[in-house]
Amino acid sequence: MRLENKVAIITGAASGFGEGIARRFAAEGAKVMVADINEAAGAQVARDLSAEGAGARFVRADVAKDADVQAMVAAACDAFGGLDILINNAGVPQRNMPMLEVDEATFDRIFAVNVKGLYLAARHAVPAMRRRGGGVIINTASTAGVRPRPGLTWYNGSKGAAIMLTKSMAVELAPDRIRVNALCPVAGDTPMLAEFLGGEVTEDAYARFVATVPLGRLSTPRDMANAALFLASDEAEFLTGVCLEVDGGRCI
After folding, report:
1. d(Cα 157, Cα 154) in Å, to the nearest integer?
2. CATH architecture group of domain 7-187+220-237
3. Whole-angstrom Cα distance, residue 84 to residue 77?
4. Which residues are part of the catalytic machinery?
């Protein structure tokens, strides 16, 4: 098992990419703290993993709130004895619309979750990883931060920030043997897709979106889980500051 006895926190793990990563990590031997703002769905994922024999717990956490993030890290350390891997996967989308039509509250929430969430996670997770002698942080960024689409300007900016923060964290935390990488997926068939398409997934809009991906489909939780597993494993021990495009060629 590639993550045997590793302790991992995965935010946004109640559904979509986060759930896929949580299930794959558990299958590879990790002890998983399922973190999400959705209590019912997140608790169910943790129960499913426990029923399959994995070490798994659920903690409710809004990654934009310092007290929640502090409690999330403490819960993992208390339950499993420390922290080795943090997957900053929780994120919020922006509905596709002209940039000046996005209200301030929406802008604030996008940056609170997608950017401030990385700051808060680092504040509490890095000390725990230092106590273990190292660790791995993986941030879910997006192709939006590499090749932006019109109508998603503020979301694009938040993911561009996530990419630059990943690179800067990688350099600063290297002496602590903490590797920091990012995943840049194209959109997947998750609840966020409707927002990226302007509020509704129509057959025509879906087809146009998929047509922008050379390999002809969207990202799946399995795609993200496979990429995250590699970056979290010892096989990637010399990789840090990498922003891996899991996008079927979208960013070419």
Report:
1. 5
2. 3-Layer(aba) Sandwich (3.40)
3. 10
4. 155
